[in-house]
Amino acid sequence: MTILNLDGYTDLPDGKIAVIVTFLDMERPAALPSLSAAAILERWHAPDPEAYRALYRSVGEDWLWFSRLLLSDRALGDLLGEPTRQVHVPRLNGAAVGVLELDFQDEENVELAFFGLVRDAIGKGIGRWLMAEALRLAWSRPQTRRLWVHTCTGDSPAALGFYRSFGFRPYRRAIEVVDDPRLAGILPKGAAPHVPVIEPRD
């Protein structure tokens, strides 16, 4: 069993990766941003698991998103069909260019569960518009008292600053250690090159 050294280095077993996770939250803002984009936002009711996985990969493969890829069709369908969960898709010229998922299971503490764009949509102002839409959806419910999100060092290096620019504040940090999904074939070996794959040595 590996013991975490809180004052130095800790070697990870073969096949494992570690990321630093930062949790951020916000209370009700004084004013919501109003931004526009060429895209439109569409609510995705009861997504088909296969179609959802394809979009999830398109958005998250560069950033080591893999948790939803581990679920069976039934488990994923049940999760996405929860009445307290909303999946929204930004569309540009009819094509899906991202995903926005809000979890209202705790009606006072709403989670921005997934947020991202496909590679070709980044840098066009769609991300800031999509976040403005996320805030509008979350805060349109009178029950909402807090909105929270987490990001990690596997994510885009711009993510933390992006969230903070909208008023999210860091409040907690954690270390997540998982099996490298690229070694298990869940993601391709070339995914997320900023987190190098370390092949076990003989």
From TrEMBL:
- State what protein this is by name: Acetyltransferase, GNAT family
Has UniProt tagged this entry with the keyword Transferase? yes
PANTHER family, sorted: PEPTIDYL-LYSINE N-ACETYLTRANSFERASE YJAB
Q: What is the species listed in this Swiss-Prot or TrEMBL entry? A: Polymorphum gilvum (strain LMG 25793 / CGMCC 1.9160 / SL003B-26A1)
Is the Transferase keyword given for this protein?
A: yes
> Where are its TM segments located?
none
Read off the Pfam families from this record.
Acetyltransf_1
**SUPFAM superfamilies noted in UniProt:** Acyl-CoA N-acyltransferases (Nat)
Q: Which CDD domains does the record associate with it?
A: NAT_SF (cd04301)
Outline the extent of the N-acetyltransferase domain.
42-184
The alphabetized UniProt keywords are: Acyltransferase, Transferase
Q: What Gene Ontology molecular function terms does this protein carry?
A: acyltransferase activity, transferring groups other than amino-acyl groups
